[in-house]
Design goal:
By secondary structure, the protein is mostly helical. It contains 15 helices and two strands. The protein has one domain. A two-stranded antiparallel sheet has the order 1-2.
Amino acid sequence: MAIALFLGGLSFLLAVVWGVPLIGWLKNYGIGKKIRIEGPTTHQVKTGTPTMGGLMIVVPVLLITGVLNLSNLLTSFPVGRYLLTMIGKEGDTVIGRSILVPMGVMLGFALLGAWDDLWGVRGKRGGGMLARIKLPLQVVLALVIAWALYYYLDIHSLALPTVPQKIDLGLFYIPVAVFIIVSSSNAMNFTDGLDGLAGIIATTAFMAYAIIAYLQSFRGISPDAVGTVRVSYLVPFSMTVAGACLAFLWFNAHPAEMFMGDTGSEALGATLGVVALMSGQWLLLPIIILVPVAEAASVVLQIAYFKLTGGKRLFKMAPLHHHFELLGWSETQVVQRFWLVAIWSAMVGIALALL
């Protein structure tokens, strides 16, 4: 845990240092957010604020994790193992194979999110990639990750609170994993609508899973009934992500100098889903990320209610944070109160993981 906390602090420093140059670069290339006309009128002043700020999180996390696990990552490939043998070095094959998965999902969904952000900035619609295009791409990426979890890492079980034995789901694990990854990615994306909201929710969730993974490692618990994957590597990885998210909040606190964009929200959501799957405690994910789940549910319910009632609205506006804004809550009040709920739900999730 001491190393994990140090890495969290290191990622914070690296991300903060290059935050100002990144904002300058985004402004220079005109990568500014377009605000929906139908959104709250108070948000119109945010038009033009640099987006794609998720790069501030993704790059330091991949850089730090990659450098610290270089020898372990090389063992995942035949050429890498040969090179390590030639120079008399060794790597941990289990950790190398394991850490490659969350790194891969973060990179893949960050690239997809960046494409979406650029589409929104450069396109005439200003609304980003169409759902009928983006969702299939997300599913394909999630399928690759789910396949890697099942076949590459041998993870395919379900952990239940108070039940010591884990339930082997077999091939049914793959569609479940795809659903969790895609849902978590989109839920975090819906949450990214107010200054500081998505960043602070993601930080809390990753810290929660860092604690869960640490306690599992301390107690010698494997995330899978038959797998050999250890969870200790998830502790420094999760804290590294949390540290980078805190650095992003330095520039995203109200009034925001930079937005996360889909580059960050989709990558963080999908990566969090994979961390939950690899820890074996994915059943607790909806509790730990209660706020993003509520945000996504509000959108689904709003659309369904609108169609069923012929034009009536269940909420004043979806996602949920806009509903509370229109009720009279200030942006800061919404963010702080949602964060309190996130802390509470994370505490409940950690407690359930210990049963």
